[in-house]
Amino acid sequence: MTDTDPIVITPSGEIDLASAPALRESITEALAESASTVLVVDLADVTFMDSSGLTCLAFAHQKMQERDGRVEVHNANSSVRKLITVVGMDQVVEVRE
Amino acid sequence: MSLRVLLIEDDRGDAVLVTEYLEEGLPGVQIVWARSVTDARAELNRGVDCVLLDLGLPGASGLSALAEVLELAHATAVVVLTGLAVGQSGRLAVAAGAQDYLVKGQVGVDDLRRSVQYAIERKRNENAAQRLRESELRAQEYRRLERGLLPSLQLDSCGLDVATLYRPGREQSLLGGDFYDAIAHTDGSVDVLIGDVAGHGPSEAALGASLRVAWRSMVLAEVPEEQRLAALDRVLCSERDSEEVFATVATLSLPPSMTTATLRLAGHPPPIQCEPCAAAVDTSDIGPALGLISGASYPAARLPLGPTWQLLLYTDGLIEGHAGPERLGVEGLVEQLGEVMEPSMPMEHVADKLLARIEELNGGPVADDIALLLLRPAR
User: Residues B76, B50: contact at Cβ < 8 Å?
Assistant: First the structure.
């Protein structure tokens, strides 16, 4: 892997109060391994997310800002996408199909 | 369960003797022998009932070995063994945190048994007292923070009937950042706030309390309603611990006539209006959560209010519980509120009944904190 490839994270299941700390940790680990300026959070296998998941995205956004990079959220299901939109997180991270 | 005693002793002869005494005095005891604190590390991490530590270990002064053991296993009872010629070291060890000391060569089976049993008992009491002190301190801290987050509302002689409810999340040790407030003015108009700092912990709770007080100050100082959320966004950005922290907020302003309301949402889930049928307020145009985007705007929605209006404002804990295989969601909440809401029922009962239903669907208390406000005209 080179530093120009995007960093990809693929959480699965439910992202809530209980599982968010692990996601935050895997974001931290992935960012430590690569200097890439694009972080893709692929939510294809995520069935549910609450505001704890949004705090992870905000954390990831913050970390990527520090290296002039960006966060992309891919493949979020409709309820997750709705949550992201209501909170306005779609104006901070790039939400893609 | 049998006692587990860890013996840290470099001399094989002494170790054999102590083991014999222990087995005789405390039948069934499990004894693990380590020659040094380093060798004992894994066992200390695993947890034992009592440590018997030789203060005469080579390569380390006895008290530094004790300090090392206490650091690794601060909740475990420790009895030190000293040689005859060591003078004060036993008493110094007790002052440094050991429960007891024994002088080698002057100890019989009964002395050893009593010393180990008393040490374990004393340490247990010490640990329990420590836990009690900590939980009392935490409870005081939480009460202080909760008063800041969930104040008594200033609604004297206003034309509203209001019920509030707050339920901490299932993990009660995690203090949430949910907050609400409401203020009635002398002309009969009313301002209402509900919000939620994302995340859990004392700093989120403290930030929630700051936001609420900042909002109340603006209302009391008659800062125009349309300027408040932008100002609150700046307050959050200057008060937060880290740049990633954000908060969702809903505000509602009711004029003296109570025929319309001005609603502003910053990333917050929509209120539910009953008129008399329950429905989520249509909010296509809403602002982002506070702290996400600098210079954001927070558009107003005007809600027409009929003579029998009722409104529910809430934090997201209320819609994130399970309902069968799915989560409740806003639609599910609308349905549940529609079923429990009876115009003749006191608002507190409606709130209690709604929460009881949601907890029943979830199969117990929901994970996150819940705060809610129910409003209707007084009759």
Answer: yes
pLDDT digits (tens, 9 = 90+) for B1-46: 688 999 999 999 999 999 999 999 999 999 999 998 889 988 888 8
CA–CA gap between residue A57 and residue A54 (Å, rounded): 5
Alpha-carbon distance values, B376 to A15, B259, B305, B310 (Å): 36, 12, 10, 5
Prediction pTM value: 0.74
ipTM of this complex prediction, to 2 decimal places: 0.92
Cβ neighbourhood burial of B6 (10 Å; 0-12, 13-18, 19+) = buried
Tokens 């004060």 sit at which residue?
B88
Sign of CA dihedral B125, B130, B135, B136: positive
H or E segment to which residue B6 belongs: strand B4-8
Structure confidence by residue, pLDDT tens digits, B186-244: 999 999 999 999 988 888 999 999 999 999 999 999 999 999 999 999 999 999 999 99
**Does an H or E element contain B257, and which?**
none
- Residue among A14, A28, A50, A57 with most chain B CBs within 10 A, to mutate: A50
Residue B89 scores a pLDDT above 60: yes
- Chain A residues within 8 angstroms (CB to CB) of chain B: 16-18, 48, 50-52, 54-55, 58-59, 61-62, 65, 79, 86-89, 91-92
